[in-house]
Amino acid sequence: MGERCRLIKSADQLDGIDALILPGVGAFDPAMANLRATGLVPHLMSWGEDNRPLLGICLGLQLLFEHSDEGRDPGLGLLSGRVKRLPEGRGERIPHMGWAPLKHRGNCPLLDADTTSQWVYFVHSYAAVPSDRNDLRATAAFGDQEVTAMVWRGRLGACQFHPEKSSDAGEQMLRRWLAWLQRGAEPIQ
Question: Which residues are part of the catalytic machinery?
Answer without folding.
Answer: 58, 162, 164
